[in-house]
Every structure is written in C-alpha cells, then in structure tokens.
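Budget justification, computational time. The allocation requested in the original proposal was used primarily to generate structure tokens for proteins on the priority list. As evidence of use, we reproduce two of the resulting records. The first is shown immediately below.
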Amino acid sequence: MIWNDSKISAWAASGGVTPFDGSCVNPASLDLRLGNKIRLPKRKWATHSCAPIDMRTPATELWDDELIFDSIVIPSGGVALCCSLEYIRMPEDASGTLMSKSSTGRRLLEHLHAGFFDPSFAGNGVFEFFNNGPWDIRLSAGDKLVQIKMEQMIEVPKVSYQVIGHYNGQVGATAHVVVSEYYMDPSGWIRRRSV
C-alpha cells in the first residue's frame, strides 16, 4: 500500500525526515532536496585509457573526494554522485523507492534508479545523476530533483537493514560500502559484525 500525503507528513514531522519542509509533500510522495555535497569521477577516467572496472572495483577508485558546492554544472554526458539535504529514518515496516521528478526528467537529468530505502535504513539519500541531454545542466543545493514513494510492508522483515545494511548511517555523497561479516546467531537471526 502506497502512503498518502497525511501519512507521509505525520512520519516526516515526527523525526522521519530532518530537516522537514511541509511544502515537499505531494499526494503520494515526498520531494527530497539536493544537499551541498557532491562527488565527481576521478579525472583519470576522462582519458578512457584505464582498464575496465567490474563490480569488485572499489568505489574509491572511481570517485574523487567529496566537494561542498552551492551550484555546479554537469556537462552533457557527465555524471555526479549527490546526496539529499534530508536525513531519512525509515520505519521498520515501510520501504521507499527513489524516483526522479518529472521536471527533472524533462531536462534529461536522469537518476540511475539505484535508490531504494529498506525498512530501518537511516542516512542521507544518495543520487547517481547522469546528464542525458545535449545541454549542460546546473545543479544548485536545495533543488527538488527526486521524490520518495513510501510503501507499507505486510509485516516487519525478519532481518533488519540495521543489521545487514551496507550504507546504514551514510552521510553525504557516500561512494564506498561498509565491509561487514555476517553470521547467524543461535536464535536464527542474521547479525552483522563490522570488520
């Protein structure tokens, strides 16, 4: 079941979203604003002379250090790793799907749909943007570029994202994953041990 505006507002105002701005609430979604932290690809990738990457390539080899910005231009064909201004605290019985706003899509700024908020996730949303247009696009901190759609779970998951989530507690335009080891405790619950 998708949450409506009143359920979104009640959750967000009670600490689910910080800072919360009521003008970001839509009939069935919540706008997230662009934070002021960004990562751009390391310059070495501009030459196309590097070896191909795969899913084992550490993200730290791909992205430059985090920058603070007020506004920045993403050139045609350019990519950026951005984050939400808001810190999200997901309930244990709901999930969220991150989608581009239609106004963002009409400018051909594409969010790469890697945005899913598991129940019990906490942290800034991270946006993987690609400028799919023939024009450069200026991004400014505070822009409403994406929205989150909340869905009620049929029950609380047995294994919490607090236990197995790689990005739980992320702040800023996080490029790396927390390395963890998983084990099953005597009661059958999966637990995480950071290494």
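The second record produced under the same allocation is shown here.
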Amino acid sequence: MLALARALENGAFAGPLATALGRVWEHTLGRTVVRRLTWPSHVRVVTVGGATLGGSGKTPLAMACAAALATDGTSVALVGHAYRATPRHARVVRGDDPLDEVGDEALLAARALGPAGVRVVVAPERQDAVELASRFAEVIVIDGVVQTAPVRASLSILAVDAAEPWGHAVALPPGGDLRAPVSRLVEACDLVVAVGDAGQAPIPAGTLHAPAEIPGAWVRGELVGWDELAGLRLGLLSALARPDRVVRSLERRGGRVTAVVRAPDHGPFGADSLERASGEAVDLWVATPKCALHLFAARAARSRSAASREVGVLRHACALPVALARSLSVAGRGSLSRTP
C-alpha cells in the first residue's frame, strides 16, 4: 500500500485508474478502524483512537481517561502500542524500562500513571497485551484503537485535533493524513473528543472538547511559568508527526518560538539534530515529555555531545470534559457494554 500511495502522490496514475486505486486505498484504511480483539466477559474496555496518522492527541486523552477511571476507584490498565519498539513478550511497563523495548508513549504513561495505580501493558501483539491486562484489571483502556469486534468496546472515543480535526486536508494519504474516511471513523465511535487548543473555527456541535493544559516547563526541577517563558526566545525539540501543533500552543500562551529542530516521529534524535540545536540562537530549548525521552536518550549515548544546553520539559495534559468523565464512570461500572 505504501508503494501505491507514492505512485498516486507522484501522479503515476490518472483518470479512471486513479479513481479506482483511490477507492482501494480508502477501503483498505477503512478496514483498520475496527480491530478484532477478545477479552473475558467480566472486563470492560474503553478504546481511544486517533482520526489522523499521528498528531490527534489520542495518547494524552487515553492517559487522562485511565487516570479518571482510577480516581473513580476502578482497577485500570492501559494497553499501549509500543510503536517503533520491540517488546519480546507481553509485559507490564516499568518507569525505568529501556525506551527501545517498550516505546516512548508507553514509558511516558507508566511514569505518569504509576502513582495512580494504573499499570501499562505492551506486547508484540495487541491481543497478547489485552490478555495480560485482563488478569489484573477490571477496565482496560486501549490506546490507538477506535472500535473492537466481535464485541464492541464499552466506550469508544475518537480523538481529533481541536484546531484541525481531520488533519491538514479532509483526505486520505497521500493527499491528507486521515486514518480512514470520516464517515467510517464517526460511525465506529461513541464520542468524538477534540483535544488541545481550539483553532479559529469553533469546535463542531456534538464534539466534546478536552483543552490542553500547559502551565509551563520544568527547568532544573522547577516549574517555570509563562510570565517568564514569554520573554524568552524558545526553541522546540520535536520527535512528533506534527510539531506545528505544539508551536501553535506555545505561541497562544505568549511563547516566541524562533527555532524548531525535528527528529523522526517517535525518534530518535540523531547527532546532526543535536549539533544543530547547539548552534541555534535561543534562550531555552523546550520539548514535550515524550520528545524529551528521545532527547535524553540521545544525549546519554553521546555524553560528550556539544548539544548539552538546558532543556525545559513542558508540563502537558488534557482536561477531560464533564460529559466524557460521566461516560467513563458509566463504562467503568459496565453499563455501556453491548454487542453489535
């Protein structure tokens, strides 16, 4: 399918053939919206999928959902996807696990959710992770899945970017970055939640809003607020698919981003990126917590690197809307479980 996408993007096909191939692409992506997963009948499942191929805010939303369920007194596990990592077997993630074995988002979630009693599970196959999580959790939050079959999730949540809900264009790859046709995504879920700062257009009717909470950045163990950050030239170190979302969030809070150094989505940071960061004229480099994992791992591998300047780690979360919190509470009690 990747070869097909590139051929379409490069204009190798035209006319009726291009239309037919586009339909094949749409059909193939549409089939990924519902994943076949099974679990014991006493377990409830909450799924949190993203509308786009990265950058929809699904993992912060999944983490917030797991934390809310735990606060409600529910035994919760979060099943991560270990993207670009190689877990050898189903395992509970520890806060000191190697990044390349469990993945950045699972490691970040384990560190953030551990104090709340939420265990994070990854595996080579998602089904294996669900089976392990089912041994000790009443509710499983699955990060990266919109809907399940043959039994539907107790609650299915679709995360969309609040500023660009359907990506850079309402189109599938290669023209856009939608995970699947909008109709397929919306039909599969119970709730659509816009994550992050809203754009110029209002949040669509019927869509819940989980606003971003970024009170500042941790620098040398202290939280530096926007009253101080706003006066600095900020540089962003990013290992995200869409760093422009972070830039917009910083600028809305008064930040002045004068440089962006990118690594591939989910890392790693290479030596060239670190060297470039050393030469940029910024007062403070900042990174999201996920990007900071890759940055510090790269620095540890290159202890004598010139890129040793101070980095502020942004404090970032999303606030759950009241309606979503209520739906989670009902799902946690098992009242929403149903079959197709």
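A brief technical remark on that second record: Confidence is low (pLDDT under 50) at residues 1-13, 336-340.
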